[in-house]
Amino acid sequence: MALELTDANFDELVLKTDKPVLVDFWAVWCGPCRMVAPVVEELSKDYDGKAVIGKVDVDSNPNISARYGIRNIPTLLVFKNGEIVDKHVGVAPKGVLASKLDAQMA
After folding, report:
1. What is the structure's pLDDT at 85?
2. Which strands, in side-by-side order, build the sheet including 75-80?
3. Which of 1, 16, 76, 77 is the most buried (most CB within 10 A)?
4. What is the CATH number of the domain that holds 62?
5. Which domain holds residue 74?
6. What are the catalytic residues?
7. By three-state DSSP, how is residue 56 classified?
8. What pLDDT does residue 90 have?
């Protein structure tokens, strides 16, 4: 299951890990977010132990959303060593997101 990321735990779980991280910025009222949610959950199972997969509810965590300039959701950011290395705005098929993570595995 994807981790619930918050303003309080984001730095610890995302920026301080040595694994690639996929972060889904979403909101409960967002239709496209509901479309990408099952894909994010599948990726969290597929990459268990290899990457960190998490979700940030933009309404509940405005500080993280503001820090990364999230204006449209869903926005999916890929982090490596605490830095953003890839980004996708909008709904994406599983293969697109998986390839973004795979590129950071080396």
Report:
1. 98
2. 3-5, 52-57, 21-26, 75-80, 83-89
3. 76
4. 3.40.30.10
5. 3-90
6. 30, 33
7. strand
8. 97
Distance CA 4, CA 55 (A): 5
Residue 105, SS3 per DSSP: coil
Task: Specify the residue for token string 């610890």.
Answer: 12
CA gap 22, 44 in Å, rounded = 9
Structural domain contains residue 28: yes
What's the domain count of the chain?
Answer: 1
Report residue 76 as tokens. 């999916």
In the prediction, which pLDDT does 75 show? 98
Q: Contact, 24 vs 74, CB < 8 A?
A: yes
Q: What pLDDT does 47 receive?
A: 97
Provide mean pLDDT across the span 51-60.
Answer: 98
Q: Give the chain's length.
A: 106
User: Does residue 99 form part of some domain?
Assistant: no
Q: Give the pair of three-digit tokens for residue 82.
A: 């605490």
